[in-house]
């Protein structure tokens, strides 16, 4: 089915919605509380489609072939209050991926340094802004170190925290973003080889773009209109012309918006594409192997994740539709769990408190291969090789549990 071409009632949390999360989406609790509930007695046991007789921590995902991975370690690390977005990267140039996570209510960023074996030091926190929500990592100032960019939903600001070279962060620099920014994405939007920043403004129907001037300095925001209620944003070359476009999702309308890069970093043309309902996160990868960037879009209320296949020219068609069995898939991330060169899909569902692994079968279809318990209210996923063994590992931020859970994998046998 052709989806598009160029030319709400719930949130990701379980139990009664908290005031801060209601505020994040502009919900009037006096009117909508009854609609913003999840079952509070959901109890889900750890189930893997695996060799059930294997000892704990050594269970193998049920998948064909000789490269079946083993879950070798699960670690849980406390952070601050209401962690939402998690990312992974080598913050201290040790050769190992570290973890960075936003803490919404605490208004801070937590950094967890990898000790070299996939276990992590206690978190170090750095003040960001009010309602710290989305983040991404990039070498913003060109010194070879990963820096942090954060969207502060309540403050309406973008914070940049520069890495001091050892994984510690300097005091933040704030820039006005817009009304209720939730996420942040980074790419060289205007072709000057410097990473620029884009932030969607949920209540302003717009994306704010900050162009990098070098040395961590940015222009004032330039505003480009979007559909209603843009929640997540992702910079990705959808058109296949080498220019990063901006994709946004709308929780309220179920529409995907593509802002087409005009070659100079401007976005004067856009396309609106209906995907489903209550769109949440968007991720990208070449899932079909044709060299084009496909999209993964979570649909919260329907409990599904849509795979949108890119023909290479920006034409998107509906691919597989993944079902978690819950009512709260918040985040989907592509990763190669089996080492077969095919990108599988990891999904967290806040209503079931589980991480689901869908195996890429190589023919456009996906099979639920394994599932793991998370903390309460999982909200996002980071993918990295945390141990240096060549395997993709996973880290999950848990909104309600105020922690991060890390899943380490190794080859079976």
Task: Describe this structure as you would to a colleague.
The chain has helices spanning 19-24, 29-32, and strands spanning 2-4, 69-78, 83-89, 98-103, 108-112, 124-127, 132-138, 147-152, 157-161, 173-176, 185-187, 196-201, 206-210, 212-214, 217-218, 222-225, 230-236, 245-250, 255-260, 269-274, 279-285, 294-299, 304-310, 316-323, 329-335, 344-349, 354-360, 366-373, 378-384, 393-398, 403-411. The chain is mainly beta. The chain is built from 2 helices and 31 strands. A 5-stranded antiparallel sheet has the order 1-24-23-22-21, with no helix packed on it. The longest helix is centred in the N-terminal third of the chain and has 6 residues, at 19-24. 2% of the residues lie in helices and 44% in strands.
Tag the structure with descriptive keywords.
2 helices, 413 residues, mainly beta, five-stranded antiparallel beta sheet, four-stranded antiparallel beta sheet, globular
Q: Biggest β-sheet, characterized?
A: 5 strands, antiparallel
> Level of helix content?
under 10%
Give me the number of helical elements. Answer: 2
Q: Gap between N and C termini, in Å? A: 42 Å
> How many whole angstroms does the radius of gyration measure?
20 Å
| Fraction in beta strands | 35-45%
Shape: globular
Low-confidence blocks of residues: 1-67
Number of strands: 31
């Amino acid at each position: 089915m052709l989806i598009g071409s160029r030319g709400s009632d719930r949130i990701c949390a379980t139990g009664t919605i908290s005031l801060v999360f209601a505020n994040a989406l502009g919900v009037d609790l006096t009117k909508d509380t009854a609609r913003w509930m999840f079952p509070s007695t959901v109890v889900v046991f750890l189930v893997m489609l695996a060799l059930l007789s294997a000892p704990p921590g050594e269970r193998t995902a049920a998948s064909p072939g000789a490269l079946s991975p083993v879950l070798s370690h699960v670690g849980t690390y406390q952070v601050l209050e209401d962690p939402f977005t998690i990312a992974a990267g080598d913050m201290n140039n040790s050769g190992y991926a570290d973890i960075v996570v936003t803490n919404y209510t605490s208004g801070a960023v937590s950094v967890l340094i990898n000790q070299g074996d996939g276990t992590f030091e206690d978190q170090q926190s750095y003040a960001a802004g009010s309602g710290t929500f989305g983040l991404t990592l990039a070498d913003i100032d060109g010194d070879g170190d990963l820096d942090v960019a954060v969207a502060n939903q309540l403050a309406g600001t973008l914070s940049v925290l520069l890495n001091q070279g050892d994984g510690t962060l300097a005091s933040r620099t704030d820039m006005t973003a817009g009304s209720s920014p939730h996420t942040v994405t980074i790419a060289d939007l205007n072709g000057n080889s410097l990473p620029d920043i884009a932030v969607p403004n949920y209540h302003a129907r717009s994306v704010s773009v900050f162009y990098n001037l070098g040395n961590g300095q940015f222009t004032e925001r330039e505003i480009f209109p979007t559909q209603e209620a843009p929640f997540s944003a992702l910079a990705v070359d959808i058109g296949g012309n080498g220019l990063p476009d901006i994709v946004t999702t709308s929780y309220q309308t179920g529409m995907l918006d593509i802002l087409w890069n005009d070659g100079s970093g401007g976005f004067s043309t856009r396309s609106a594409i209906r995907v489903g309902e209550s769109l949440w996160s968007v991720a990208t990868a070449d899932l079909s192997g044709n060299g084009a960037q496909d999209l993964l879009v979570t649909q919260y209320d329907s409990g599904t994740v849509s795979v949108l296949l890119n023909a290479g020219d920006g034409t998107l068609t509906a691919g597989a539709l993944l079902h978690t069995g819950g009512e709260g898939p918040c985040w989907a991330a592509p990763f190669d769990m089996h080492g077969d060169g095919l990108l599988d899909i990891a999904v967290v569902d806040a209503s079931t408190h589980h991480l689901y692994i869908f195996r890429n079968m190589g023919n456009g279809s996906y099979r639920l291969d394994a599932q793991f318990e998370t903390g309460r209210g999982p909200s996002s996923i980071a993918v990295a090789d945390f141990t240096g063994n060549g395997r993709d590992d996973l880290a999950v931020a848990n909104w309600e549990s105020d922690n991060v859970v890390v899943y380490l994998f190794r080859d079976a046998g």
